[in-house]
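Chapter review: from sequence to fold.
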Amino acid sequence: MTNWTPQQNNAIYASGTNLLVSAGAGSGKTAVLSERVVQRIAQGASVERFLIVTFTNAAAAEMRARISAKLADLSESNPGDRHLRAQTARINTAEICTIDAFCAGLVRENFETLGIERDFSVLDTPDAQVLQHEALANVLEPRYDARSSAFTRLIELLSGAKNTQAFEKTVQELYSYIMVQADPLNWLQQMCVLYDPENESGPARWCEILQRDYEGGLQYACNMYASIRASLTPDDCMFDGYSALIEREEAFLKKLQAQLGSLAACRDLVQNFSMESMPRSPKGYTSPVKAALSAVRKFVKDNILNAPYLQIDLQQAREDMDYLYPCVCELYEIVRDYSAELLRLKKEQNAYEFSDIAQFALSLVADFSGETPRKTAFAQELSEKYDEILVDEYQDTNRAQDFLFTCISNGHNLFVVGDVKQSIYGFRLAMPEIFVDRLNSYFDYDPNEPVSSRIYLNKNFRSRDDICRYTNFLFSKIFSPQVGGLAYDRNEYLNAGAVYPPAENACISLRIVRDDASAAEDKTENEAQAVADFILEKISGGMTVSDKSSPAGVRPIEFGDFAVLFRKGKGTIEKFAKVFAENGIPVAAENAQPLFKTREVMLLLSLLRTVDNPTNDIAVLSVLMSGIFGFSADDIARLKVQGGAVRKNLYTLLLAQRDHEKVKRFLDFIDKYRNLAVAVSCSELIIQIMQDTLFIALMASAGEYENSRMNLMKFVDLAARYDYGDTRGLSSFLHYIDRILASDAVKSASGDGGSNAVRLMTVHKSKGLEFPFVILAGTASRYNQQDTVKRVLIHPSAGLGMQSLNESLRCRYNTLAYDAVKKEMEKDAMSENVRVLYVALTRAKESFAAFMTLKDPEGSLEKFAGKISFADGRIDPYLCQSAGSDSALLLMTALFHPATAALCAQPPHLSEIPDFQMDMKIVSAQPLPQQEATAGVSQPDPGVLAQFTERFAFQCDRSLSKIAAKRNASELDRVSGDLDFYFTEKPNFAQAPGRAGTLGGTAMHLFMQYCDYKAAAANLDGEVQRLHRENKLTQEEVRLLDLEALRAFFASSLASRILQSSCCRRECRLLSFQPVSAVENMDSDQKILVQGIADCIFEENGALVVVDFKTDRVKEASQLSAHYSRQMAFYKTAAEKQFGLPVKEVILYSFSLCCGCKIEI
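The token string follows.
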């Protein structure tokens, strides 16, 4: 029975009012949410009376499974309770879904009211982009023809020097932004009204933003001067000089604070003030006071005396509004017309984006026709349908979703769970301020007060105590309402609830990699090497991690225990993977690149383009020089020379030389598939090409088999979806691909790397995961500020920020609106940066390390020490706002820990010693040794030359030179040089209708690799669908599965033996050195390394049984036995060596024969 904390109990049993649960990282919010539903059902509620909304399909499936399992246990404990039995049976009818699925269901039920078709589909990103491009062209074309003055001015403002792509992108971004608002066009209109010259609310709002920022800077400076003054002592030789300087400048700042309401008064004060030079100190004088005073005076010069607030010119602002208002109105009309045209095209296609479906749903429950929105009659009916509405991850909702939930709630049955500190999806237009507003407006939970209440879950059941302590230490200093969205107080603290064995060393590590002038040029690879050394040091040093299954409670740390996280993965993860591979560290890199830029899909596209148009020289050349046809550069040159005409295309030259063997093979290929292309669908054509060319095997030969296969299957799925559309044919499909090619919207598969591999991923990818050891790399990289330098800035409360144009100088300049909106966006971006850091740190279970590369580590520490030396244990929000990287935040907070004392010449005084250990070091880069070039060529020494000649005259036996030092077990039954198996006729099963040969076999093996045997035996169809939902199987692979053969296996005696085994190993990697004579027809005592993966090895009566699954189409078992004898003999020998138990049986299970075949060895 679970021991719930008091706060968890409140969250489970509280009723009768709206509840907000602020659940910190690792606090068990999913368990609490599912338990709340179960307890409500146990009290008599029905599952149909709940709406449970999660963030992802996987989370919805997990929630349903948890509730189902708990209800089943409860029903079993209470066999006489008919209500529980009935609810358990009806759990699959419960509304447990994503917000997108809920909206889609609501819209389908009310399609007639909305005037749309019920059987609409959801647009994929590539298809949506095609429609968006068409809609925008339809809207802009007449405007380009008319060329009104407002439109011409708008184009000049928002377009680049060479094209109008920037302008068109602005329209699309603005459309995407308004679609997450509750009333999209009305919101945009209100933002445009702020530019109306007759409206004073715009300048007032923008001035207030800049004034508030200026006030924050003033407060920070005053606090610093007061702290420095308080720290001065009379025995300091600079006491008099510094005191007088501080008194004068502090008085000036206080006058500015008093005059903040008057811009003119503040400007006069600044203009009449000049900063004096620092008093000269004696030679050799060093003091934290001096460093801190220098730092705050520099801040005053840069941010107080030259602040944007003081540059406000209201007359210029009104002139800018006069100039821009017609442009803003034109932009509104373009977005309005684009929205209508895009919706028209979508209706023609009977397909919509999720944002459209959400707006449809919202229009059913909300009426925006009046001055204030109100619930519809349908919303009132819907409110009575649900006893409770439970929403997870509420910190990532938007205005449209929030208003939807408000409308369908009855006012006291909304239960929302979230953690604003983990809201990191601003790029998806999540609005954490919605959660914060609810949190601030609700009251602390009191069972006697029926008001909207908040409950904090701050017991962490994931991380070691020191991880929790460091998290609280770090974020209590940098989180604030201004930075992060809320104050990190005791309610937000993580309190360790997990139990771990005592740590042997510090659980927190900071590593500063010195960027020496002599180091390697690439800083990323330099840091990657430092991280690789760190990981290898931990493994070789005998570090342990907790393991409850081990008798000692711990086990040695492995590569698979590490996760290296990055803010941005593109380019960085590839370099880390390369360096790790050079150091022998296995990696699983989850960094999906654009699908159409992967090697395998690019070549497959070239094949298709060649079939569609053989005169496309670029595509033809790519295909000819690929591994499929094997043309060399010399072959191509020879074709050109023999063709005689340089201007002829390659295809014409090839036709003239058809007698050549390679050429004939290529031309036959083209002829065959050009004929096939007019008779079959695109997906069928692609599968046939892949099968006939052994395409997957060819691509996998360069490594990353799983990635290549998944990418190709993803491309096949894309083609299959296209085949369902109105247009047909290879040419149309390639034209469709060309239209989405540049968007990079379709991503490739991510690397797996095996279970014992270091995971490389972005922080966003790691959300919801946990790892024993987390390393945050690249923390010195500057934060991304691209969103704050666009031509049009968009903010939910500040509105639109547009630059104006000086027509005489032909240059753009920032307006008051632009500066104000930019300031708000910078504040929001910094808040999200801090939250990303929080997510990264809270993924760690036992240890956390951060790496940064700095040119001058000691200098950086001294600079930060000067800024925070006399802080009161917190870092001022204004100072946090100016931090440009994670490393700045990590180092500023680290200065409050004694671990920095040895690295900083003047560390700040510590009023409180943190209660956790931290290991902090500066490490130097170790570049790879470079060979030095010699200035000239020396003559050889005659004696040495004679010795070389004598020794190198020896000729060794080269018979083994063509034998690979490492061999896969699947190759053992092929003798060296015998490649006939590559070119045999396709087996019968490959030609069977609906079966795609080797692809079908691959699908069967993948299912057996990933499936849960017990679940598959009980419900095969359900297990297939689970693997498809979790992206283990593509839709095409699901179609290719032989379900009858799988059912036969799980009903067999062999499956029964496996399920009854106490220990069953799946996908078991085996390695062993074997004599060459056992592998090749050669007499040699040399050995080579053989490796393979056995599908299944299970224990039975103290011995092992090795099972391998085969999909070969054979007539009798003896054929399998003859073909795989060496491979299975290797599995037997290697398994006995590796596990120290005898192998009593080796079984080949044939899905073709639906039976197992014992191999006698």
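Two observations follow directly from the output. The radius of gyration is 34 Å. Confidence is low (pLDDT under 50) at residues 928-937, 956-966, 975-996.
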